[in-house]
From TrEMBL, chain A:
UniProt GO BP: snRNA processing
Keyword Transcription found: no
Keyword annotations: Cytoplasm, Hydrolase, Metal-binding, Nucleus, Zinc
Source taxon at top rank: Eukaryota
Gene encoding the protein: ints11
Family annotation (PANTHER family): CLEAVAGE AND POLYADENYLATION SPECIFICITY FACTOR FAMILY MEMBER (PTHR11203), INTEGRATOR COMPLEX SUBUNIT 11 (PTHR11203:SF37)
Name of this chain's protein: Integrator complex subunit 11
Record-level GO cellular component terms: cytoplasm; nucleus
InterPro entries, per the entry: Beta_Casp, INTS11-like_MBL-fold, IntS11_C, MBL, Metallo-B-lactamas, RibonucZ/Hydroxyglut_hydro, RMMBL
Requisite cofactors: Zn(2+)
Domain annotation Beta-Casp: ranges: 245-363
CDD domains referenced in this protein's UniProt entry, alphabetically: INTS11-like_MBL-fold
Gene3D superfamilies, per database record: 3.40.50.10890, Ribonuclease Z/Hydroxyacylglutathione hydrolase-like
Similarity section: Belongs to the metallo-beta-lactamase superfamily. RNA-metabolizing metallo-beta-lactamase-like family. INTS11 subfamily.
Automatic annotation (TrEMBL), chain B:
Gene symbol of the encoding locus: ints9
Domain Beta-Casp stretches: 305-433
Keywords assigned: Cytoplasm, Nucleus
Species assigned in the record: Chanos chanos
Gene Ontology terms describing biological process: negative regulation of transmembrane receptor protein serine/threonine kinase signaling pathway; regulation of cellular response to growth factor stimulus; RNA polymerase II transcription initiation surveillance; snRNA 3'-end processing
Record protein name field: Integrator complex subunit 9
Length: 600, 678
C-alpha cells in the first residue's frame, strides 16, 4: 500500500523552527527550515541528525521548499545547506528569495557580532546558500524531476508567502506555511483550488481564536495610539521590518492624514527604506486595491513616517515608534522598551505573537518585573496592549481553507498542543476526516489508495459510451469487457478482438452442440414453430428469428429439429452455440429439456 | 482535429483549434494596417489637411470629394480610421470555449470577438500581457475618442465604386468588414473575461485538454502555448525571440515532442539585424541632435521602447548628448513606465537580480529621476510649456494616422533639420508617410524586430522535432520583393502545411487512446497472465463511469442477494442477462495432455465435495474409453460411453454431446484450462 509519511523536526505542537519532512511516492521533501526565537542553544535549529547521523543531506532530500521569509521558516537554511550540507534545489518565491538573505544577514549580525557567538554561518554561506535557490511564480508547475512536481499558491501572511502543493503521480500533499484568509490593508487573502490533497498540513497558530472583525481591531488600535499621543505619551510598536509593519504604517499614515495629527511617527532600522522598496517592486504580490492604484499613488511612499535615530528616544513629547524586532527579544525595540518602560503614560503595543522566553511573551503574561542582564530588574509601568495583527488564519480561516482544498486527511503544525487538540476535534467532527498533530520527531503515516492510470483504446471507450447511452442506468450499470495488455510498464486497455490482433494471436473457437430429445407429436416444422413461440414468450428483449434454412436463431444460437423415420414423434433438437454465448446456450438447453408447454 | 484560420496576417494571427471536445482560439490580432488608407487624425486643426482636394474620377463621373481626399497623388479616406478584423463568418464565435493570448500585440481584436457575439468563454493571458494589453487598448480608444469625426465615410466601400478607385485603395480586401475602434466600455467588458495564468501553469479545460503558457522571450509576459491531452500535443508558437532583451528567455525544451507545431509571428524584417538597427538608430539620432534638429520616434507605448531607452541611457552620455531631453508622450506613458518595473518575475535574470537589491529593473527609473526622461499624457497641458528643443520624442501611433505623432509630423515635417526614425516593423514607412508628402524632414527606417528569423526557426525546429508544422502561407515562399532569397522561407521535411485567411485545415492526427483510471479495488482484483515473454494480459470486466471528460473503471457491483421468498423459483428461471460476453479465447488444445486430463477427470468428479449428481453420469474410473481419430485438421475424440464427440482443431474446439449438462460443463472447463483468455 502506498504511504505518505510526515515528520516535523520543528513546529510539531510548537511555534518556531518550522521544519517538516514529507516522504511521498519515494521522494523526500523538506518543508521550511526555520529557527526558534525562544532558544539560544542547539534547540534553536531543527535536529537534522534525524535525517542522517553522518554527513550531508543531499542524497536524502529531493528538494527543500521555503514558504516565506520569516526566520522561524528560513532561519536555519544556511546552517542546513552549508554547514550540514545540501546541494539539491531549494525553492521559494521571488520576493522570498529577495528578502530572505537580508533577514538572514541581520540575524547573523545580531548573533555573531553583538552576542559574539562563534560556530555560526557566515555572510559567504548565506550567499552560497542563496545560489542554490530556484525562484518560482504563483501557480507555476515546477517539475523537480520526472515524477515530483510542486506548485505555489498565494498565502497572504507576508509579501511573497506561499502555500505549496507537492505531487507525485496521483498522490499529493499541501503545506500552507503561514497564511491569512482575510485580506488586509496591504495583502490579499490566501487561495487554493479544490486540489483534494491526501494530506493538508496547516499551521494552527490561532487554532482557538475567532478574531473579531478586522475593522474593530483597527479602530481599537488607532484609538489607543491616539489617546496615548494626546496625553503626551510615547507609543512603542515592536514589529518585524517586513510584513505587519507595512500594514500598520499604511493604517497610521491614512489616520494621521485624516485627523491632521502632528506627533511624529518613526520607523527604526535602515531596513525600512529598503523594505518599502521591495513592496513597490513586488506590488503584484499585494492586494487588489494597492495594485490597482499604484500608478497614481504608491501606498508604500509614506509622508508622515520618518526614519528613526537612536537619539530621538530621549526627545520630550509624544511620538510613535515602530522598532524591530517584534518580540522584544533583542535589538532596538528592546533598547527603547527599557527606556520607556518606567513611565505609565507610555504604551507598548504588541501586534503579533510572541514566542515563549522572549520579553514580549513575559510582559504579555502580565509580568511587572523583568530580570535583565547583570541582575538588574526592570519595572514595567507602561501600559502593555496586545492586538493580534499577525496575519495568521484563525479557526474560522483554517476551516475555510479545508473547505476550499477538500483534503482527505489533515495535519496540524505551528501551534500549541492544547489549542491544536481543540481544533483537531472540531475538524474531525465537521469534516469527518482524520486529523493528526505529531510532535517533533514523531512520524504520521497515511496510507493512500491511488487509482491506476491506464490507456484505453479510443474505439473501446467510444463504443462503451455509445452503448451506455446519454443517461446510464445507475441501478443496472453496464459491464464493460476489455483486455489489459501489460508490457514494458505500459498499461493499455483494448477490446479483446484488438488484443488478439495486436498480440498476433488467433482466436480459438469453442463451440457446443447439444442434443435434446423430446416427444412431440407434430411435424418437424411445427415443432420448430412451437419452440419459436415458446421462446418468444420466455425470452423478452432477445432477438429470435426464423432462418431461411429452417432453423430458429436466438441471438447467435442456432436451433434445429430433426427426427427419424422410425420414431417420428421423438424429436432431436440440436442447439449449437459458441463459448461467447455460453450462458444463454446453457439456459436454452436446460429450458428445452423440460419440454414445451401444452398450451402452445 | 481542425484548425480554422481567421486571419491571414502572419504576425497578428487569429486561429481556432478544435481539439477533442474543446474549441480554442489562439490569439486575436487586429490588423491596423488598414488605417494607412485613411487620412491622419490631427489633434489640433491642420490647415494643410483640411485644404486637401477631394477626389473626383478623371472622367468626372464619380464624385466622392466628401469621402476621399487626394495628397501627393494618393487617395485617402477622410473618416475615422478603421481596422481589419479577424474573419467572423467562418465559424460561430459563440462556440469558442477559451481564447489563449500569446502577447499584448496579439490581443487587440479581443473586444470584437468577445462582445456582441454571444461569446461566453474565458480568456487566458499572463499578468503583464493583460496589464499592458489593457494600456494599449485604452490608448487606442483615447486616440480615437479625443478627436471625434462627425461623419463616417461608407460610399467608397461599395464594390462597384471601390473597383474604380485608384490603387492601393482599389485593392484593399474585405473593406466591408472593416470596423471602427471599440469603446472603453467594450474594452472593460472584454478584459473582465480574462483569467491570469503564470508560465508553466497547467490549466485544465473541461478535464479533456490541458493548456500551458511558456515563456517566448519576445515581450513582457509573452508566451507560447502547449495544448495537450495525455496522448496528443500541439505547440502554438507565436512571437518568440532568442535575443537577450528584457523579457525572460524563451522556453524551448518544453516544445519538444509535439505532434503539430503551429508557427506564427516570425520577424517581419528578416533581412535586418536588430543590433545593427539599434546602432543605426543611435547614430542617426546623434547626428540630428548635433545639427540642432529634433528626433521623432513613432512607437508603441510598450515593448521595444524599454530597450531603446536603456540603450540611449548608455549612449547619450558617451556621445556627449547628456543634456538632450527625451519626451515620452502617450495617454498611458506613465502607466507603461511604472508597470514595466513591477514584473520582476517576467524579466531576464539580469534584471531580476536588480530587483533583489532592491533596485528598479529598468534604468528609465533613473532617467525619470534625473529629469532626462519626461512623460506626458498628451501634447496639451504641461508639455507645451515645458518642452525644449532639440529633443527626442517617443510617441504613437506608429501608423502615423492617429495619436500625438500626427501633431509632430505637422510641426516638424517642414524642416530638413528634423528626423523621423521608424523602429516599429508593423507598417511600411513609405505608406505611413504618404499623407504628409511633400516632406522636408529626413526619414530613417531602422526596424527593430526581435522575433525569430528563418535561420533561428530552422534551428529551433531541428531541436524540438515536431511531427508536423502548420504556418501562414507567407512562410512557405520567399518574400515577393526578394523572390530569389530561398533562405527567407521555411524548408522542412515533411513540408509545412500552409494556411491563409479563411483556410480550414484538417490536422494530421489519429487519436487512439484516452486516459482512464482503474479504481484500486478493481486493479487489485485483476489476474494478469503472461502470454509472451514480457507481455501479460488480464481480462477486465468493470463498470465505466464518465464524468466531466474523466473516465473511471470501477468493479462490477455484486448483485443484491435475492430475498428468500415465494418468487424465488421464478427467479431461477430468469434468462441470463444479455450483454455479458465471455472473454475471447486463444491458443490450442494439445491432444496428449488433454487426454491425460480426461482420464483423471473421473477421479476428480468422484470427490464428495463435487456435485454428487455427476457420479452416475461418469464411469467410476474416469473417462477411459476415448477413441481418437485423426483428421486433416486435427483430431476427433469419441467418448463412447457418453456418446460425445470432441473435435480438436488448431483454431477451434467443438463439443457435441447429448443433453448432459454436467458433463458438458466439465468438458468445457477442461478445454478452457488449455486456452488463454482475453
Amino acid at each position: 500500500m502506498p504511504e505518505i509519511k510526515v515528520t516535523p523536526l520543528g513546529a510539531g505542537q510548537d511555534v518556531g523552527r518550522s521544519c517538516i519532512l514529507v516522504s511521498i511516492g519515494g521522494k523526500n521533501i523538506m518543508l521550511d527550515c526555520g529557527m526558534h526565537m525562544g532558544y539560544n542553544d542547539d534547540r534553536r535549529f531543527p535536529d537534522f541528525s534525524y535525517i542522517t547521523q553522518n554527513g550531508r543531506l543531499t542524497e536524502f532530500l529531493d528538494c527543500v521548499i521555503i514558504s516565506h521569509f520569516h526566520l522561524d521558516h528560513c532561519g536555519a537554511l544556511p546552517y542546513m545547506s552549508e554547514m550540514i550540507g545540501f546541494d539539491g534545489p531549494i525553492y521559494m518565491t521571488h520576493p522570498t528569495k529577495a528578502i530572505c538573505p537580508i533577514l538572514l544577514e541581520d540575524f547573523r549580525k545580531i548573533t555573531v557580532d553583538k552576542k559574539g557567538e562563534t560556530n555560526f554561518f557566515t555572510s559567504q554561506m548565506i550567499k552560497d546558500c542563496m545560489k542554490k535557490v530556484i525562484p518560482l511564480n504563483l501557480h507555476q508547475t515546477v517539475q523537480v524531476d520526472d515524477e515530483l512536481e510542486i506548485k505555489a499558491y498565494y498565502a497572504g501572511h507576508v509579501l511573497g508567502a506561499a502555500m505549496f502543493q507537492i505531487k507525485v503521480g496521483s498522490e499529493s500533499v499541501v503545506y500552507t506555511g503561514d497564511y491569512n484568509m482575510t485580506p488586509d490593508r496591504h495583502l490579499g487573502a490566501a487561495w487554493i483550488d479544490k486540489c483534494r490533497p491526501d494530506i493538508l498540513i496547516s499551521e494552527s497558530t490561532y487554532a482557538t481564536t475567532i478574531r473579531d472583525s478586522k475593522r474593530c481591531r483597527e479602530r481599537d488600535f488607532l484609538k489607543k495610539v491616539h489617546e496615548t499621543v494626546e496625553r503626551g505619551g510615547k507609543v512603542l510598536i515592536p514589529v518585524f521590518a517586513l510584513g505587519r509593519a507595512q500594514e500598520l504604517c499604511i493604517l497610521l499614515e491614512t489616520f494621521w492624514e485624516r485627523m491632521n495629527l502632528k506627533a511624529p511617527i518613526y520607523f527604526s532600522t535602515g531596513l525600512t527604506e529598503k523594505a518599502n522598496h521591495y513592496y513597490k517592486l513586488f506590488i503584484t504580490w499585494t492586494n487588489q486595491k494597492i495594485r490597482k492604484t499604484f500608478v497614481q499613488r504608491n501606498m508604500f511612499e509614506f509622508k508622515h513616517i520618518k526614519a528613526f535615530d537612536r537619539s530621538y528616544a530621549d526627545n520630550p513629547g509624544p511620538m510613535v515608534v515602530f522598532a524591530t524586532p517584534g518580540m522584544l527579544h533583542a535589538g532596538q525595540s528592546l533598547q527603547i522598551f527599557k527606556k520607556w518602560a518606567g513611565n505609565d503614560k507610555n504604551m507598548v503595543i504588541m501586534p503579533g505573537y510572541c514566542v515563549q522566553g522572549t520579553v514580549g511573551h513575559k510582559i504579555l503574561n502580565g509580568q511587572k518585573k523583568l530580570e535583565m542582564e547583570g541582575r538588574a530588574t526592570l519595572e514595567v509601568k507602561l501600559q502593555v496592549e496586545y492586538m493580534s495583527f499577525s496575519a495568521h488564519a484563525d479557526a474560522k480561516g483554517i476551516m475555510q481553507l479545508i473547505r476550499m482544498a477538500e483534503p482527505r486527511n489533515m495535519l496540524l503544525v505551528h501551534g500549541e498542543a492544547k489549542k491544536m487538540e481543540f481544533l483537531k476535534d472540531k475538524i474531525e467532527q465537521e469534516f469527518s476526516i482524520s486529523c493528526f498533530m505529531p510532535a517533533n520527531g514523531e512520524t504520521t503515516t497515511v496510507t493512500t489508495n491511488p487509482s491506476v492510470p491506464v490507456d484505453i483504446s479510443l474505439n473501446l471507450l467510444k463504443r462503451e459510451m455509445a452503448l451506455g447511452g446519454p443517461l446510464p442506468d445507475l441501478k443496472k450499470p453496464r459491464t464493460m469487457h476489455g483486455t489489459l495488455i501489460i508490457k514494458d510498464n505500459s498499461l493499455r486497455l483494448v477490446s479483446p478482438e484488438q488484443a488478439l490482433k495486436e498480440l498476433g494471436l488467433t482466436e480459438h473457437q469453442l463451440r457446443f452442440t447439444c442434443r435434446v430429445q423430446l416427444q412431440e407429436p407434430h411435424s418437424d416444422q411445427d415443432t420448430l414453430n412451437r419452440i419459436y413461440t415458446h421462446l418468444k414468450s420466455v425470452l423478452k428483449g432477445y432477438t429470435i428469428q426464423h432462418l431461411p434454412d429452417g432453423a430458429v436463431m436466438v441471438e447467435s444460437i442456432v436451433i434445429k429439429v430433426t427426427s427419424s423415420a422410425e420414431e417420428p414423434n421423438l424429436k432431436v433438437i440440436l442447439l449449437s452455440w459458441s463459448y461467447q454465448d455460453e450462458e444463454l446456450g446453457s439456459f436454452l438447453s436446460t429450458l428445452l429439456k423440460k419440454g414445451l408447454p401444452s398450451g402452445l | 482535429m481542425k484548425l480554422y484560420c481567421l486571419s491571414g496576417h502572419p504576425t497578428l494571427p487569429c486561429n481556432v483549434l478544435k481539439f477533442k471536445s474543446t474549441t480554442i482560439m489562439l490569439d486575436c490580432g487586429l490588423d491596423t494596417t488598414s488605417a494607412l488608407h485613411f487620412l491622419p487624425l490631427p489633434l489640433v486643426h491642420s490647415p494643410r489637411l483640411s485644404k486637401l482636394p477631394g477626389w473626383v474620377s478623371k472622367d468626372g463621373t464619380l464624385n466622392l470629394e466628401k469621402e476621399l481626399k487626394e495628397c501627393a497623388g494618393r487617395v485617402f479616406v477622410d473618416s475615422q480610421p478603421e481596422f481589419c478584423l479577424p474573419e467572423r463568418e467562418l465559424l460561430d464565435l459563440s462556440t469558442i470555449d477559451v481564447i489563449l493570448i500569446s502577447n499584448y500585440h496579439c490581443m487587440m481584436a479581443l473586444p470584437y470577438i468577445t462582445e456582441h457575439t454571444g461569446f461566453t468563454g474565458t480568456v487566458y493571458a499572463t499578468e503583464p500581457t493583460f496589464q499592458i494589453g489593457r494600456l494599449l487598448m485604452e490608448e487606442l480608444v483615447t486616440f480615437m475618442e479625443r478627436v471625434p469625426k462627425a461623419q463616417s465615410a461608407t460610399c467608397w466601400k461599395n464594390k462597384e465604386i471601390q473597383r474604380m478607385l485608384p490603387g492601393p485603395l482599389k485593392d484593399a480586401l474585405d473593406v466591408w468588414t472593416w470596423k471602427r475602434c471599440y469603446s472603453t466600455q467594450e474594452v472593460n467588458s472584454a478584459l473582465s473575461k480574462v483569467q491570469l495564468v503564470g508560465y508553466s501553469q497547467k490549466v485544465e479545460l473541461f478535464g479533456a485538454v490541458q493548456v500551458t503558457p511558456l515563456s517566448s522571450g519576445y515581450s513582457l509576459g509573452s508566451s507560447n502555448w502547449i495544448i495537450q491531452s495525455h496522448y496528443e500535443k500541439v505547440s502554438y508558437v507565436s512571437g518568440s525571440s532568442l535575443l537577450t532583451t528584457h523579457p525572460q528567455p524563451m522556453d524551448q525544451s518544453s516544445l519538444k515532442n509535439s505532434d503539430v507545431l503551429i508557427l506564427t509571428g516570425l520577424t517581419q524584417i528578416p533581412t535586418a539585424n536588430p543590433d545593427g538597427m539599434l546602432g543605426e538608430f543611435c547614430s542617426n539620432l546623434a547626428m540630428t541632435i548635433r545639427a540642432g534638429g529634433n528626433v521623432l520616434v513613432p512607437c508603441y507605448s510598450s515593448g521595444v521602447i524599454y530597450d531603446l531607452l536603456e540603450c540611449l541611457y548608455q549612449f547619450m552620455d558617451s556621445a556627449n548628448l547628456g543634456t538632450t531631453p527625451f519626451y515620452f508622450i502617450s495617454p498611458v506613458a506613465n502607466s507603461s513606465l511604472e508597470f514595466s518595473q513591477i514584473f520582476a518575475e517576467w524579466l531576464c535574470q539580469n534584471k531580476q537580480s536588480k530587483v533583489y537589491l532592491p533596485e528598479p529593473p529598468f534604468p528609465h527609473a533613473e532617467l525619470i529621476q534625473t529629469n532626462k526622461l519626461k512623460h506626458y499624457p498628451s501634447i496639451h497641458g504641461d508639455f507645451s510649456s515645458e518642452f525644449r528643443q532639440p529633443c527626442v520624442v517617443f510617441t504613437g501611433h506608429p501608423s502615423l494616422r492617429f495619436g500625438d505623432v500626427v501633431h509632430f509630423m505637422e510641426l516638424w515635417g517642414k524642416s530638413s533639420l528634423n528626423t523621423i526614425i521608424f523602429t516599429e516593423p508593423d507598417f511600411s514607412y513609405l505608406d505611413a508617410l504618404a499623407p504628409y508628402q511633400p516632406l522636408a524632414m529626413k526619414s530613417v527606417y531602422c526596424p527593430i524586430d526581435t522575433r525569430l528569423n528563418f535561420h533561428q526557426v530552422a534551428k529551433l525546429l531541428k531541436e524540438v522535432q515536431p511531427l508536423h508544422v502548420v504556418c501562414p502561407e507567407q512562410y512557405t515562399q520567399p518574400p515577393p520583393a526578394q523572390s530569389h532569397r530561398s533562405d527567407l522561407m521555411l524548408e522542412l521535411q515533411p513540408p509545412p502545411m500552409p494556411y491563409r485567411r479563411c483556410s480550414v485545415l484538417g490536422l494530421p492526427f489519429r487519436r487512439r487512446y484516452e486516459r482512464i483510471q482503474l479504481l484500486p479495488e478493481l486493479a487489485k482484483s485483476l489476474v494478469p497472465a503472461e502470454i509472451k515473454p514480457g507481455i501479460s494480459v488480464a481480462t477486465v470486466s468493470a463498470v465505466l463511469q464518465s464524468k466531466d471528460n474523466k473516465h473511471i473503471l470501477q468493479p462490477v457491483p455484486k448483485p443484491a442477494p435475492v430475498p428468500p421468498s415465494k418468487k424465488r423459483k421464478r427467479v431461477m428461471e430468469e434468462p441470463p442477462e444479455l450483454l455479458s460476453p465471455k472473454p475471447l479465447l486463444s491458443g490450442a488444445v494439445p491432444l496428449e495432455p488433454f487426454l491425460a486430463t480426461l482420464h483423471k477427470v473421473g477421479d476428480f468428479l468422484l470427490l464428495p465435495s463435487l456435485s454428487p449428481s455427476l457420479s452416475f453420469i461418469l464411469p467410476q474410473h474416469g473417462i477411459t474409453e476415448v477413441k481418437v481419430e485423426e483428421t486433416p485438421e486435427g483430431h476427433i475424440l469419441h467418448l463412447q460411453t457418453e456418446d460425445t464427440l470432441i473435435q480438436l482443431e488448431e483454431d477451434g474446439t467443438h463439443i457435441v454431446c447429448g443433453n448432459n449438462e454436467p458433463l458438458r460443463t466439465t468438458l468445457r472447463d477442461l478445454v478452457l484450462r488449455f486456452l488463454q483468455k482475453l
